[in-house]
TrEMBL record:
EC number: 3.4.21.26
Keywords for this protein: Hydrolase, Protease, Serine protease
Positions of the Peptidase S9A N-terminal domain: 20-419
Gene3D superfamilies given in the database record: alpha/beta hydrolase, Prolyl oligopeptidase, N-terminal domain
Similarity section: Belongs to the peptidase S9A family.
Annotated protein name in UniProt: prolyl oligopeptidase
Length: 693
């Protein structure tokens, strides 16, 4: 059955009255300015009155969404679109080849394995971890010989993990389950044990919202209790907020990265081939991003943006590893460089205007070839063990469903390995990149995707999505959900705004701290460009972003409530004066600055902080989304923002908050949860634009 939609007057859905959200008289003083925070009580996610408020708000939201006549039709369409086999790229561990597969509508993808071309078998099925499908597999690592595996599980989307060790042959559990592990990999040293990182669990208050300050690196010896795990790095002597560790492939070196914020890290190394050898410092500051990507004997390969905002690959001898001794192997270019290795080769993946360009080098830095990609888009996964002869990579774009290719490292030939089974014909659509000027004249790229033949008359429903922070690059990627928009003449647009990493560290820094307004200006200018060029108009424009992108949407609608018809701030950082008081929030100070830094920084944050910037005005139809187990951007941000927005709304458009239960910041959600949220998003958007399905 085909659906089409026409533009029509919106039926008048009766919104239940919003809950009477009580107001307190809490205030804070910053540099002589008193700031009221009437909804502070909503920060306590364990309090009965907060739980009652969540229930009441969800009742209003579900009542509203339940009256949209085509909500179920959209959900049915999404369910049908989602129902195809999905594969992850294969990887080899010991004698097995492993890969992830989802039959279509399974809550979580299943980890399969096979020997050569033998019969595939299920290795781990996360759908059996919990009855409701909300416990997910959150990472796995294998010993070098593939005989043991340590896998992490996340319950209800939390960032806190448990670690379980298995013998891979018969899947018997080894030792006890490790608990309270957070922001960590598991790095094996032989078959003896592994390194992992965690925080002390908050002793007071909420386990989900409590501040997690200092990371610690431990070594867990198999067969011993977790209480006996040895502290390797961190703690009182070297307090760091983020500590990550990994071993070089030959397991000779332990590499430790230590950081206090999400940008810039120290680098340490320890020679494990000599018992009792010290941990040696390579980089002793947080000014740049540095990582050891490989070694050949004592020659270390380091990916860095020291003196190279777009990154370079350098080499150095382990015995004299300070940065003054680093030698360029692949120098910086005008495009941002990422590095991976496989089959004894180096793969240099460049971002050229936010799309992929990949080159293959030998270990001495000699260019062997440019790799031919299927189209313009995003390629990822050029990595394999040193002895491998082939690797697998995935290619995607806004109109190219994720496709897996097998790559022969010796010849450079790619062959199709797994094509996506999604119901989508790329020939009917186009994606084009445009460049527009922001408020200060900076040129910003944007990719606009739509059905061929779409008439640009200002009446097309358009979803404008962006992120703009933390050096993260928004590269083209296919979305099954977006088919619902595109197949009916809608448009999807993604600008690569400042704060991201698309043009290196300079681009990132241009959207941080006292430059953060650039990010909002870039996004607003994107909307104005789309309206001016008749891709859409104010009445058919929706804006969307999650996490730091939720901050972007919150700031956009408080600064320009007249800009769009619909807004989706998802799991957003919305209280900029208190974000650093919760969980890992203090680590975001490099991007945001804090209200305690200086009078100037406080005033800057106070001015744009979405929660504080809400004034009485006519706001667009807004659906705030969050989750009760989000322990990265705590739901208090969304609770407080939605309460104040409901209070200050002078127009007729609804202000709803959709609170997912048993879910976190995004990772690990069940397929049913994802489809349900996407159906609600499109229903809310189309309905408030007066679009009849």
């Amino acid at each position: 059955m085909l659906y089409g939609y026409t533009h029509a007057q919106t039926m008048n859905i009766k919104t239940l009255p919003y809950p009477k959200t009580k107001k307190g008289d809490v205030t804070d003083a910053y540099f002589g300015t008193t700031v009221p925070d009437p909804y502070r009580w909503l920060e306590d996610d364990r309090a009965e009155d907060t739980k009652a408020w969540v229930q009441e708000e969800n009742k209003v939201t579900q009542n509203y969404l339940g009256q949209i006549p085509y909500r179920e039709q959209i959900k049915e369409r999404l369910t049908k679109l989602w129902n195809y086999e999905k594969y992850g790229a294969p990887f080899k561990e010991g004698k097995y080849t492993y890969y992830y597969k989802n039959d279509g509508l399974q809550s979580q993808s299943v980890l399969w394995r096979q020997v050569d071309k033998g019969q595939p078998e299920i290795f781990l099925d996360p759908n059996k971890f919990s009855k409701d499908g909300t416990t997910s597999l959150a990472g796995i690592s294998f010993t070098k010989d593939g005989s043991l595996a340590a896998y992490q599980i996340s319950e209800g989307g939390s960032d806190w993990r448990k670690v379980i060790v298995l013998k891979t042959d018969d899947k018997t559990v080894v030792g006890d389950t490790l608990i309270d592990v957070k922001f960590s990999g598991t790095s094996w040293h032989g078959n003896d044990g592994f390194y992992y990182s965690s925080y002390d669990k908050p002793k007071e208050g909420s386990q989900l919202a409590g501040l997690t300050q200092y990371h610690k690196l431990y070594y867990h010896k198999l067969g011993t209790p977790q209480t006996e795990d040895k502290l390797i790095f961190g703690g009182e002597k070297t307090p760091r907020r983020y500590i990550g560790a990994g071993l070089t492939e030959d397991e000779r070196f332990l590499v430790i990265s230590a950081a206090t914020t999400t940008t810039g890290n120290e680098l340490y190394i320890q020679d494990l081939s000599k018992p009792g050898s010290p941990i040696v410092n390579i980089v002793d500051n947080f000014n740049n991003d540095n990582s050891i990507v490989d070694n050949v004997g004592e020659k270390l390969y380091i990916h860095t943006n020291l003196n190279a905002p777009n990154y370079r690959l350098v080499t150095v001898d382990f015995n004299n590893p300070k940065s003054s001794q680093w030698k360029d192997l692949i120098p910086q270019t005008e495009n941002v460089l990422n590095i991976s290795t496989g089959g004894g080769k180096i793969f240099a993946s460049y971002l050229k205007d936010a799309t992929s360009f990949v080159q293959q080098y030998d270990m001495n830095g000699k260019l062997e070839r440019n790799i031919t990609l299927p189209s313009v888009g995003s390629a990822g996964g050029f990595g394999a063990k040193k002895e491998e002869k082939e690797l697998y990579y995935t290619f995607t774009s806004y109109i190219y469903p994720a496709t897996i290719f097998k790559y022969d490292i010796a010849t450079g030939k790619s062959e199709l390995y797994k094509k996506s089974g999604v119901q989508f014909n790329p020939d009917l659509y186009e994606s084009k990149q445009v460049f527009y000027n922001s408020k200060d004249g900076t040129k910003i790229p944007m990719i606009i995707t739509y059905k061929k033949g779409t008439v640009m008359n200002g009446k097309n429903p358009l979803l404008l999505y962006a992120y703009g922070g933390f050096n993260a690059s928004m590269t083209p990627g296919f979305s099954t959900s977006n088919i619902v928009l595109l197949e009916h003449g809608g448009i999807y647009a993604v600008p690569n705004i400042r704060g991201g990493g698309e043009y290196g560290e300079k681009w990132h820094l241009a959207g941080t701290k006292l430059n953060k307004q650039n990010v909002f200006d870039d996004f607003i200018a994107a909307a104005e460009y789309l309206i001016k060029n008749k891709y859409t108009s104010k009445d058919y424009l929706a804006v969307s972003g999650g996490s730091n992108g939720g901050l972007l949407i919150g700031a956009t609608i408080t600064q320009r409530p007249d800009l769009c018809k619909v807004a989706f701030p998802a799991v957003g950082v919305l209280d900029m004066l208190r974000y650093n008081k919760f969980t890992a929030g203090a680590g975001w100070a490099y991007d945001y600055g804090t209200a305690e830094d200086s009078k100037e920084m406080f005033e800057y944050l106070y001015k744009y902080s979405p929660y504080h910037a809400i004034k009485p005005a006519s706001y667009p139809a807004t659906m705030v989304t969050t989750a009760d187990h989000d322990d990265r951007v705590v739901p208090a941000h969304s609770f407080k923002f939605a309460s104040r927005l409901q209070e200050m709304q002078k127009g007729n458009a609804p202000i709803l908050i959709r609170i997912e239960t048993n879910a976190g910041h995004g990772a690990g959600r069940s397929t049913a949860q994802i489809i349900s949220e996407q159906a609600d998003k499109w229903s809310f958007m189309f309905y408030n634009m007066g679009v009849k399905w």
